[in-house]
Write a structure and sequence with these properties.
CATH superfamily of the largest domain: Ribonuclease Inhibitor
Number of strands: 24
Helix content: 10-25%
Order of helices and strands: EEEEEHEEEEHHEEEEEEEEEEEEEEEHH
CATH topology of the largest domain: Leucine-rich repeat, LRR (right-handed beta-alpha superhelix)
Oligomer: single chain
CATH architecture of the largest domain: Alpha-Beta Horseshoe
Radius of gyration: 35 Å
Largest sheet: 8 strands, parallel
């Protein structure tokens, strides 16, 4: 139930490694004296009333930082691109604030999230500790929102890699550079103002288990590359402007809940019980695509056969003089016969009208 501002004297704790001030009523800006705490590994200031910009010095001073939790405050302004200098950063939770402008392209440079292996962490992440009463206690822990639930991680915290920027006012397109984060497990960008297409590079995020892009202004087709995410178990693309057919195959076959795609008025497919034929704008399912491909193949074979047969006759006539004379003689005979027949009938019609 702490309230008020963080005292500047906290910056004197230069060997401080863990700072948990979450779930209080603290307010104001983060004091600049905190940049003296260069040994910080984990900072949890979530669920308070902090305001102002996220300090620029975080990316320069907290070089040991692995976990940054600023969830549910009133931070505003843009996200500092300098955060990319935190090479060990593996959990970033800035959800439920008032952050605006685009996601920095530098977010694709987090080395710990690019790696698909667990980075080596200090022993206090890996082992339990003994309290003053001589009993074992949990190792350090953090509460994160993942797969639609609020979960607390402790003994496996060092394995978790997550980015949560949901419920802010972020704009523009989702950076393609996020696809470089092959070791990331959770990416939540829901409830913002992102527009444009879902980048194909997301298909490279081989460790991704949770992807939430709901409640944005995304448009265009859902990239087939999503089917390459073999670890994906939670997906939410609802409440956007996505269009055309829902991709099918591989991991996407196991995600058969229609609520994943609802409130995309131009999206269609079997899962939504909505046909992909809309006037001149035609999108076909896999079965319809196979049928059309078969028909097209038949037409192409027929046309090719006709073309080859016709030119075979022309080639024969070109090199066989006797055949050529016979052919044109026969054509002349047929022409004369047709001409005479027509002429006789025309003369009869004329004579009958005169009489």
């Amino acid at each position: 139930m702490l309230f008020g501002e963080i005292p500047t004297s906290l910056g004197n704790l230069m060997e401080l490694e863990f700072l948990h001030l979450n779930n209080n009523s603290l307010k104001g800006h983060l004091p600049s004296s905190l940049q003296n705490c260069k040994q910080l590994v984990m900072v949890d200031l979530g669920y308070n009333n902090f305001s102002g910009n996220i300090p620029l010095w975080i990316g320069q001073s907290w070089q040991q930082l692995r976990i940054l939790l600023l969830r549910s405050n009133m931070f505003n302004g843009n996200i500092d691109p300098q955060l990319e200098h935190l090479k060990d950063l593996q959990i970033v939770d800035l959800a439920n604030n008032k952050l605006s402008r685009p996601i920095p392209h530098s977010f694709g440079n987090f080395m710990a999230m690019i790696s698909t292996s667990a980075t080596e962490l200090p022993f206090y992440f890996l082992f339990n500790t003994i309290d003053i009463r001589g009993s074992y206690t949990e190792s350090d822990k953090a509460t994160l929102v993942t797969k639609g639930d609020q979960l607390t991680f402790s003994s496996i915290l060092y394995l978790v890699k997550s980015i949560d920027l949901s419920n802010n006012e972020l704009t523009n397109e989702i950076p393609e550079e996020l696809g470089y984060l092959a070791g990331l497990h959770t990416l939540n960008l829901s409830r913002n103002y992102f527009k444009g297409k879902i980048p194909n590079t997301i298909g490279r995020m081989s460790s991704l288990e949770t992807l939430d892009l709901s409640f944005n202004n995304l448009s265009g087709v859902i990239p087939q590359a999503l089917s390459q995410l073999s670890s994906l178990s939670h997906l939410n693309l609802s409440h956007n402007n996505l269009s055309e057919n829902i991709p099918f195959g591989n991991q996407l076959q196991t995600l058969d809940d229609a609520s994943i795609y609802i409130h995309n008025p131009y999206l269609c497919g079997d899962l939504l019980n909505k046909s992909c034929f809309h006037g001149n704008n035609i999108t076909v399912s896999s079965d319809e695509h196979a049928m059309l491909s078969s028909m097209l193949t038949t037409c192409l074979i027929g046309a090719l056969g006709y073309f080859v047969g016709l030119w075979s006759v022309f080639v024969l006539l070109l090199f066989k003089k006797k055949w050529r004379y016979s052919y044109f003689k026969k054509v002349d005979e047929i022409y004369d016969k047709i001409y005479v027949t027509i002429k006789i009938r025309v003369n009869r019609i004329v004579s009958d009208q005169v009489c």
